[in-house]
Amino acid sequence: MLVSLKEYAEACGRSADTARRLAEQGKLLSAKKIGRNWVVDNAEEYPFDRKKWTVASLFSGCGGLDLGFVGGFDFLGTNYPEQPFEIVWANEINAAACRTYRYNLGEIKQGDVYDVMETLPESVDVVIGGFPCQDISINGKMKGIKGKRSSLYTAIVEAVKRTNPKVFVAENVGSLFLKTNSESFKKIVEDFGALGYKLDVHRYDSSEYGVPQTRDRVFIVGVREDMFYAAPEPSTAGAPITAKQAIDDLKEREWDPAFAHIWSKAKRSGEQGNRHLVADRPGYTIRAECHGNIQYHYDLPRRISMREAARIQSFPDTFAFVSGLRETERQIGNAVPPVLAWQIARSVAMTLGGVTQDGSGAIRAVAG
Ligand SMILES: C[S@@+](CC[C@H](N)C(=O)[O-])C[C@H]1O[C@@H](n2cnc3c(N)ncnc32)[C@H](O)[C@@H]1O
Known about the structure:
This protein has 368 residues and is an alpha/beta fold. It contains eleven helices and 13 strands.
């Protein structure tokens, strides 16, 4: 039930001023302002008393999804506060992605997911993973789940069986919803559904969630039968962050490998390779396997730099990519935008904390 901050603070034996400060800092998950007054779900545990929920992360890449779950970063002047999650196990096969992950987020097991599955903890609160999408993406070979890489979603299914989490989050490309992929989609939802969780299958346009990019992604969130999940509400629908707002300050900046401000000099090519960003619109989807044919700057006679691509993907400037141009391109293009991931993680935190965004326990877009 939504109550005033004063009532909430009193019930927790804390001062209203401290509760207000926590609300303003975004540390009270369910707090929102109605007119001039803050309200908060009285089911929410006081943030200082809250333990961190444990997370196992599969197919972690450089850590875009994981950064959203950890939180505590700034992007284009907005602070995305720390989240009540701790990543206790992560895995990725690509060595360069692991280097970047370690530098920014911490320990990760490098290797094939099935080779390290035995090292999973006996139980965790949350399992997350963006399973490889090349066989499903419209830019891939469209073999669907018969392709070797996308059938790897079964590793997430297996990890859920082994660790019995309260919540799992599986991410993939929006084209999972295409007719050509309908068989794959049906099978994936069936397999996740058979785990005995309530499923929320939701398609997100990243540009509606504070990301300067029209990246289209699907999240399948499974929650235990006794829990409620409400997908995050769009935060920038109708007023997306534009490419210019995201990267204009980097225009005069010189080539700077330490800041990943390096760009491909690949010649013009077909498909995405000839596209130019449009200054007053969000960017196009940043791809992983574009072989240097990333989109051009809207003003400059060059392709966008890796740091600019990272901005379009909503990575904070403090996130370092510990690899050369091609591997960095792959890591950025593969990632879940951290700002979108942060909003999903927040909804998951509310689920685990027994509160939902609107305080009503409503679940949207249930499939299964
Ligand atoms: C879509 S990306 C995930 C990106 C990540 N979620 C992020 O936000 O940065 C999929 C990742 O799975 C990794 N991968 C592919 N096959 C794998 C395997 N057999 N075992 C472990 N990781 C694998 C790829 O190297 C790639 O980094």
